[in-house]
Write a structure and sequence with these properties.
single chain, alpha+beta, 2 domains, twelve-stranded antiparallel sheet
Length: about 325
């Protein structure tokens, strides 16, 4: 990938990467102040094509303002790359991005590779500045259905960023961005995908969540083959989390049948029992282990957990002690 291509991709995807990586602490999965009386999930699902195999959401503003985020920021201050990104694009993730919706689209029929990501970010973006920067690095700007689309042809495919609505940008392959525009205008979108929307409607209030086909996500995540073989065949999954002082979350999965679900629940009980034994020597982890709750019936498996704020207090203290020891070791 050339330097020009790398920079264009950075400009496009840093909106997502910055929002999710720093804000969600490498977690998946709202809570955007959107009324759920009309439909389950945020309004921006209307931009997601109906054949999406997974959808995730993060209320970036709520996560960034959480006590947990502030604690982690003390442990890991913002990097120079983040400041450089803001200088060049005018986008400050914590200030300018309100929410992010990410979707995993089916593989292209005419090309090998992974499922294709589509990202939608809602916030405040300097369109003129971003467009000018993209042009400087070899991108081309075109009009599609009245929407400005910035595209850059890479070695394998064309990546694009589209200002698809005031305050909303879409990032993905050029075909993916165009599909997002078509999905909203035609009304043929993921809201008509009954399986995915069933999972979304079951989510409790959370500031981050994800739902989708387990096989597609596992394949994209490139889980080790041995691990995939040990996990009974799963069809659908949902994961939701709420970040404030600590983290609370729930993971649910649907197996292919009752027997597969029972086997998975038995396996998880064994894992939890082993973790509890190991946690006896680490009292600071005991509250997390004790919070693990296994449930589900029939084809469903559920795991709930809670990471209290006290654990992050301990991590912060360990970090401070490590910082104090460093000068003495020189």
């Amino acid at each position: 990938m050339t330097a020009k291509t790398r920079y264009f991709v950075l400009t496009a995807f840093a909106i997502l990467i910055g929002g999710l990586t720093t804000g969600l602490v490498a977690s998946y999965m709202g809570g955007l102040p959107v009324a759920l009386t009309r439909q389950a999930g945020p309004d921006d699902l209307a931009f997601v094509p109906p054949d999406a195999v997974a959808v995730a959401y993060a209320n970036v503003q709520e996560v960034m303002a959480s006590d947990l985020r502030q604690r982690l920021r003390k442990l890991h201050p913002d990097s120079p790359d983040q400041n450089d990104f803001e200088e060049k694009t005018g986008v400050n993730v914590e200030r300018d991005v309100d929410a992010v919706v990410a979707a995993l689209m089916p593989k292209s029929l005419d090309a090998a590779g992974d499922h294709r990501p589509l990202v939608l970010a809602r916030g405040r973006f300097d369109q003129v500045r971003i467009e000018g920067l993209a042009r400087e690095h070899g991108a081309e700007v075109s009009d599609y259905q009245g929407v400005r689309v910035i595209a850059h042809q890479g070695a394998d495919e064309s990546m694009a960023l589209g200002f698809i609505e005031p305050g909303v940008v879409a990032v993905g392959s050029t075909d993916g961005v165009r599909a997002a525009i078509d999905a909203k205008r035609s009304g043929r979108n993921v809201l008509s995908n009954t399986e995915l929307m069933r999972l979304v409607s079951e989510l409790d209030a959370a500031n981050a969540w994800a739902v989708g086909r387990f096989d597609a996500v596992a394949q994209t995540a490139d889980l080790p083959g041995e691990l995939q073989q040990r996990i009974p065949t799963l069809s659908w999954f949902s994961a939701s989390g709420h970040l404030n002082g600590g983290i609370t979350g729930t993971f649910k999965a649907e197996a292919k049948d009752d027997e597969a679900a029972k086997n998975l629940r038995d396996m998880l009980r064994g894992v939890v029992a082993m973790v509890k034994i190991q946690a006896d020597s680490k009292p600071e982890l005991r509250s997390v282990v004790d919070s693990l709750q296994l449930g589900g019936e029939g084809k469903t498996v559920a795991v709930g957990f809670a990471v209290p704020s006290q654990l992050f207090d301990a991590l912060e203290l360990m970090h401070q002690r490590e910082q104090q020891r460093r000068p003495a070791a020189r």
